[in-house]
Amino acid sequence: MKNKINIGVIGLGTIGSSLVKLLLERRKVFCDRTGIELNLSRVCDKDLGAKKKVKVAKDMFTRDAKIVINDPDIDIVVELVGGVHPAKEIIMSALSQGKHVVTANKLLLATEGYAIFKKAAQMHRQVFFEASVGGGIPIIRSIREGMVANTFSSIFGILNGTSNYILSKMSSEGVSFKSALNEAKQKGYAERDPSLDIKGLDSAHKIAILSLIAFGKIVTIEDVYVEGIENISPIDIQYSKELGYTIKLLAIAKRNGKELEVRVHPTLQPKGYLLSSVSGIYNAVFIDADLVGKQVFYGEGAGKLPTASAVLSDIVDIAYTIVNDNVSSEFIVPKRLEIKTVKKMDDVYTRFYVRFSAIDKPGVLAQIADHLGRYDISIASVVQKERSKAHIVPIVMLTHEAREKDMQNALKKIDSLPVIKKKSVLIRLES
Ligand code: HSE
After folding, report:
1. For residue range 10-59, what is the model confidence (pLDDT) as tens digits?
2. Is 106 annotated as catalytic?
3. What is the C-alpha to C-alpha distance for residues 251 and 159, in angstroms, rounded to an integer?
4. Is the pTM of this model over 0.85?
5. Can you tell me which atom of ligand 1 is nearest the CA of 190?
6. 14-25 and 304-323 helices cross at what angle (nearest 10)?
7. What's the domain count of the chain?
8. For ligand 1, what atom is nearest to the CA of residue 104?
């Protein structure tokens, strides 16, 4: 029986170099725990300088991914290059060469996942991706294996550590957006292109992956309504606090009959709720399913060690199936066809926080309320601050549940009133 598994790692960035270090340092530990020798055979990075990050034998390093992919002794190729190209070509060629693949590439899986899983099924090889969502939290394995007997009604949570770090710092320490983002970059949490984090796209990629494995629905990035945190201002954080809420970037996938709502946006969460106390780099995922009921997963969602831990769990999982000669040809997309379509954002119902910037004179509040009423939007509470010298007052309202399209239409009308002096700020609220 084969009990030595050869591994090739492509991409020696923050996660790749940590993974290599762990594979070398913990070789004996892994062998004691699993009975399998996890042997690092080759490491690759297109940048020669990356070689300095890892202490490997000279002939183990290459700048050419093909050398790893075409090495007949390698069993598992770990793709940690990131982005769509050449990561997709690396994975497809590795599968063609009969390798199993481990990847942390959420952008690639969210955009090309179906083609990759199909290819893996054709080749009877596995593509594992635990590190793509939730950093060190074993969320993918929990959904695919631990909760396989369930029908899911919703999965939502904080899936981007960088955005959560920024919002937490702005809220608790009054730190500016820019300096909080710089800290997240320095600590290695942010993507190479941090706009993916702050514009909500990274969360969108992750919720698309979770939707695929939990609901069996291929959700393209165009299907996901995405709004990031770049327009969240300290004043809205402050008013939300006064009203008893915390602003979090939530990724939400919610079943609605045969439709699935999939959205990412800043969201007010009541202070007593668990998600509102998830701070810093931590992620939290809530799951509601018919057999297990409500479950919460919480942990470090970014960073080299939690992510390398998730990659290693995939390596070990695949290694077990190889040594047991038990590689399944299962197609990762579950054959659950109950979800037909992704719901249009226009038809989604949520509560809202709205901040109007209005002239302080008689009848203004009545004009705003009149337009909201016409669109069937019911006000839950209103706070008006004292006027400033400029005679412009912030009026903050919380609404009851209303349809997105109605709210957008009402805002268009309200923002065109002569008494409104700036574009109104709209943030959704989930309670
Ligand atoms: N940039 C990501 C985050 C890394 O901040 O959550 C983990 O996927």
Report:
1. 999 999 999 999 999 999 999 999 999 999 999 999 999 999 999 999 99
2. no
3. 7
4. yes
5. 1
6. 60
7. 3
8. 8
